[in-house]
UniProtKB/TrEMBL annotation:
This is GNAT family N-acetyltransferase. It comes from Limosilactobacillus allomucosae. Signal peptide: none annotated. SUPFAM superfamilies: Acyl-CoA N-acyltransferases (Nat). Keywords: Acyltransferase, Transferase. Residues 2-92 form the N-acetyltransferase domain. Transmembrane segments: none annotated. It comes from the Bacteria. InterPro entries: Acyl_CoA_acyltransferase, GNAT_YJDJ. One of its GO terms (molecular function) is acyltransferase activity.
Length: 99
């Protein structure tokens, strides 16, 4: 599996060069240091192998490296942030989950 990072998207490409999923995180208008975790999508043939979790982790690393603040829209990513307290420093204080 290969991962391709572009501005506002990280895509997963299988060993045959086929796209199998991505996570998108467009910028928040007027806030250059904020992005919205909009959606994570995995094609049917890529499901059941932890790809959504890997895409989410790569997004978290990307956001940490760039000191971004994240707004959560995607239910999957929201659940991942709820389950991983170490991700929550990327959220505004009022958006953090109580642990």
């Amino acid at each position: 599996m290969q991962f391709v990072t572009e501005p506002h998207r990280i895509s997963a490409i299988d060993d045959n060069g086929k796209w199998v999923g991505d996570i998108s995180f467009p910028p928040v208008a007027g806030y250059p240091d904020r992005v919205v975790a909009e959606r994570v999508f995995v094609a049917p043939e890529g499901r059941g192998h932890g790809l959504a979790a890997e895409l989410t982790k790569r997004f978290v690393d990307y956001a940490h490296e760039r000191h971004l603040t994240v707004k959560l829209m995607c239910p999957y990513v929201k659940a991942a942030f709820r389950d991983h307290p170490e991700y929550q420093d990327l959220l505004l204080p009022e958006d953090r989950f109580n642990q």
